[in-house]
């Protein structure tokens, strides 16, 4: 089986480092990081990751806006997206799933179980 490639789109450098270390060490996945929705879409188009981890609350283009652009892009719409968010209200989660995410992981998350959570949502 080939190594999974994960694109993490999050504006917080600490989250980028923790997530990248966690997934590369625990699951041996390759993690590509982007600090904004716009940068993430450009990277997604050039790298075509196996999955995208997407922060909901970001400046300029938030997670829902970024997700909408991913879902309407013929080159990207097949890529599963999982939200990483501090917004854990039931109404928020309902809106996220209706928008097309495969899962929601609440911040702060456990770095030791992050890969298994992602695998669970994506059936890996």
Question: What are the main properties of this structure?
Answer:
124 residues; alpha/beta; Rossmann fold; five-stranded parallel beta sheet; 5 helices
Describe it.
This protein has a single domain (about 5-115), classed as Response regulator (Rossmann fold, 3-Layer(aba) Sandwich), CATH 3.40.50.2300. It is of the alpha/beta class. The chain has a five-stranded parallel sheet, with helices on both faces. It has five helices and five strands; from the N terminus they run βαβαβαβαβα.
| Cα separation of the termini | 11 Å
Level of helix content? 40-55%
* Count of alpha and pi helical runs: 5
Q: Would you list the SSEs in sequence order as H and E?
A: EHEHEHEHEH
Q: Radius of gyration over alpha carbons?
A: 13 Å
In the CATH hierarchy, what is the superfamily? Response regulator
Largest sheet: 5 strands, parallel
CATH class group: Alpha Beta
Brief overview:
The chain has about 120 residues and is of the alpha/beta class.
What is the fold's blueprint, element by element?
Elements: E1 5-9, H1 13-26, E2 30-34, H2 37-47, E3 51-55, H3 63-71, E4 81-85, H4 90-99, E5 103-106, H5 114-122
Helix pairs in contact: 2-3
């Amino acid at each position: 089986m080939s190594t999974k490639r994960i694109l993490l789109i999050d504006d917080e450098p600490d989250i980028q480092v923790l997530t990248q270390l966690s997934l590369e060490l625990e699951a041996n996945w390759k993690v590509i990081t982007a600090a904004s929705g716009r940068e993430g879409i450009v990277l997604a188009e050039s790298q075509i990751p196996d999955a995208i981890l997407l922060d909901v609350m970001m400046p300029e283009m938030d997670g829902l806006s970024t997700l909408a652009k991913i879902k309407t892009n013929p080159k990207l719409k097949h890529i599963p997206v999982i939200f990483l968010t501090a917004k854990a209200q039931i109404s928020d989660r309902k809106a996220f799933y209706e928008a097309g995410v495969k899962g929601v992981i609440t911040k702060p998350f456990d770095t030791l179980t992050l890969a298994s959570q992602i695998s669970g949502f994506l059936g890996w």
